[in-house]
Amino acid sequence: MSVIQIAVFLLIGALAGWLAGVVMKGRGYGVVVNIVIGVIGAFFGGWLLPKFGLRFGGEIGLFITAFIGAVILVAIARVLRKA
């Protein structure tokens, strides 16, 4: 993986994490946490979505996958925080 690919992956993860924070809580969590949520969401979404027959390609597909995974992670975190 090249440096540019890693930078694009982190940028997409940051945007997906920020958007998930906005959608799920009304605000983001900060740049570093947004990147972490988005990157973990990308891996989680990449693992979970194919199990339901969903696959997206390209950078837009990576963003959609990361966003869906990040939203699920934020939802899980909110449920666990309340418990």
Automatic annotation (TrEMBL):
Keywords: Cell membrane, Membrane, Transmembrane, Transmembrane helix. GO terms for cellular component: plasma membrane. It is a multi-pass membrane protein. Coiled coil: none annotated. Its main location: membrane. It is found in: Cell membrane. Signal peptide: none annotated. The chain crosses the membrane at residues 6-24, 31-48, 60-80. InterPro entries: Transgly_assoc. Belongs to the UPF0410 family. This is Transglycosylase. It comes from Arenimonas composti TR7-09 = DSM 18010.
